[in-house]
Design goal:
Elements: H1 10-39, H2 49-63, H3 66-71, H4 78-104, H5 110-134, H6 140-162, H7 166-178, H8 180-184, H9 191-194, H10 205-208, H11 212-237, H12 249-272, H13 277-299, H14 304-332, H15 337-361, H16 363-366, H17 369-400, H18 403-408, H19 412-416, H20 425-444, H21 448-458, H22 463-470, H23 474-488, H24 493-503
Helix pairs in contact: 1-4, 1-5, 1-6, 1-7, 2-5, 2-15, 4-5, 4-7, 5-15, 6-12, 6-14, 11-13, 11-14, 11-15, 11-17, 12-14, 13-14, 13-17, 14-15, 20-21, 21-23, 22-23
Length: 505
């Protein structure tokens, strides 16, 4: 089997997507379900304060799990995560059906509507986070294909909701969300084909993960950049008075077309091997869209929906970019992927919601369009400066191979973001080998216990010490090792180590 996973023809691209489809649909259906529960569709930029309030409440509830996830190194139990995914999908579908019932019977209480809406957003995000954790370790090209294909599919599904009566759109959204259960199990059998062992460019997020300090610095800087850009998006979505901006049929079609076109462009550039497409390229695209939105708002003050085309496209690009960043954090950090997903969404959605609500409820802002324009420009400039200045600085450190600086300092922020290197060399080696053993396990369909045995055996543990570490008998360990040799076709400890260094590091 070809493990290089290159895409050099349309048929190869179709073949890759045929393997990725469960993850693409899972992400797309989770996102579209959350949007359906939040404000139905993108007939306008959002639904104002109500939309962002439900997003903030959902984020607050999610954040309650952060202390637990922060204290835990490594991933949550796989069975627990799988059962959690099933539960969140079902509960998201029930929340959408609850909204349908409230609308159908003209239930008068806004609090009930808000509860169901917030529930749909909360469970939709958890479902989305599950699918993002499932593409961890698949390599930057596979991740790029997955997130932007999912963005395209979700935009088409949301467009379907626009064309339906609101009651019926809730029903259709619930069915689409619940359909994830049908292919949830199938995703487990595709990891082996999708593991990517190709060379990663050093200036891609996944490439930075291979260099200790630069990876942490770049990811931390990117988090700041996401937060500042989120503030810009929040202000643009309610420009200038804080009210939602309604689309016409033409401008909504234009926004969908532009989003799909840019997604295809990014995927095409990634396939061609452009090194900066998901590092600098993504930021450039979003900042150009922000400038175009602001320019159109100023040029066509009576037709704000024209500027909203670029605003909503920018929001969509940030959605896919945030997904990509979450997988990069998960692939590098030592915490559970849910930790990075929740943290990233707090920065991204939290920043957007904060600026949107502030704009809507501050007369000093929403009655002064010039001040709003200046604020957008300031935050846009700050986001550009933060990202580009640090990118240049990091590149300079890489070129000089400044190893002393890469290991000397560990900031509190690095620890909070789960990117700290505060481990002994033994712990670091053990964690690294566990990760490599998991990759080999997916390649050869090893059981969970066989992966645990492999990680310790490859570290040089004797069979007796492996048995003591796992609290099993020595004969059980011996049986597991024999099965590992049979499944991998490798018949010595050194050959296992050589394979791991070549294919799983």
């Amino acid at each position: 089997m070809d493990t290089t996973h290159s895409i050099n023809s349309p048929s190869a691209l179709v073949s890759r997507l045929s393997l990725l489809w469960p993850f693409v649909l899972g992400i797309a259906f989770s996102r579209s379900g959350a949007i359906a529960g939040s404000y139905g569709n993108y007939a306008q930029t959002d639904a104002g304060t109500l939309t962002e309030a439900s997003a903030l409440v959902a984020l607050f509830v999610s954040a309650l799990a952060l202390p637990i996830l922060f204290m835990k190194d490594g991933s949550l139990n796989r069975k627990f995560v799988y059962l959690l995914a099933i539960a969140t999908i079902i509960l998201m579908g029930c929340s959408l059906l609850g909204l349908l019932a409230l609308h159908f019977f003209s239930f008068p209480y806004d609090l009930a509507m808000f509860f169901c809406s917030t529930s749909a957003v909360f469970f939709g995000r958890l479902s989305l986070f599950y699918w993002l954790r499932r593409i961890k370790g698949m390599g930057p090209l596979n991740v790029t294909l997955t997130v932007f294909a999912a963005l395209i599919v979700s935009e088409l599904v949301i467009s379907l909701y626009v064309s339906l009566p609101q009651n019926f759109s809730y029903f259709v959204a619930a069915l689409i969300v619940l359909s994830q259960l049908a292919f949830l199990r199938k995703s487990f059998f595709r990891s082996r084909q999708l593991l990517d062992s190709t060379t990663v460019h050093c200036n891609d997020y996944f490439g930075y993960a291979k260099s200790f300090l630069s990876s942490k610095r770049f990811l931390i800087v990117s988090a700041f950049g996401i937060g500042l850009t989120a503030i810009v998006i929040g202000l643009l979505r309610g420009y200038p008075s804080g009210d939602p901006i309604a689309f016409t049929g033409n401008t909504r079609t234009g926004y969908v077309f532009l989003t799909i076109a840019l997604s295809i462009l990014i995927v095409a550039l990634a396939i061609k091997g452009y090194k900066n497409v998901m590092s600098l390229g993504a930021w450039v695209i979003m900042q150009v869209l922000a400038c175009l939105a602001l320019l159109c708002y100023a040029a066509f003050p009576a037709d704000l929906h024209i500027g909203a085309v670029f605003t909503t496209t920018m929001n969509a690009m940030m959605v896919a970019f945030a997904w990509y960043i979450i997988v990069a954090f998960s692939s590098y950090g030592w915490k559970d992927p849910y930790y990075y997903a929740i943290s990233c969404y707090i920065i991204w959605i939290g920043g957007r919601a904060f600026s949107r609500i502030t704009l809507s409820n501050s007369p000093a802002l929403n009655e002064n369009s010039l001040l709003v324009s200046v604020l957008i420009g300031v935050f846009l400039l700050l986001s550009a400066q933060v990202v580009y200045t640090q990118y240049i600085s990091i590149a300079a450190h890489e070129a000089k191979n400044d190893l002393e600086k890469t290991t000397a300092r560990k900031s509190a922020l690095e620890k909070l973001m789960g990117l700290d290197g505060n481990m002994s060399s033994t712990d670091l080696r053990k964690t690294s080998m566990t990760h490599s053993a998991e990759i080999v396990g997916r390649q050869f369909l090893l059981s969970r216990r066989e992966v645990e045995v492999l990680s310790l055996y490859a570290l040089g543990y004797t069979q007796k010490k492996v048995a003591q570490e796992l609290h099993v008998s020595q004969s059980t360990v011996h049986t597991h090792i024999k099965r590992i040799y049979i499944k991998t076709g490798i018949h010595s400890r050194q050959a296992l180590l050589d394979y791991i260094r070549e294919h799983a590091v």
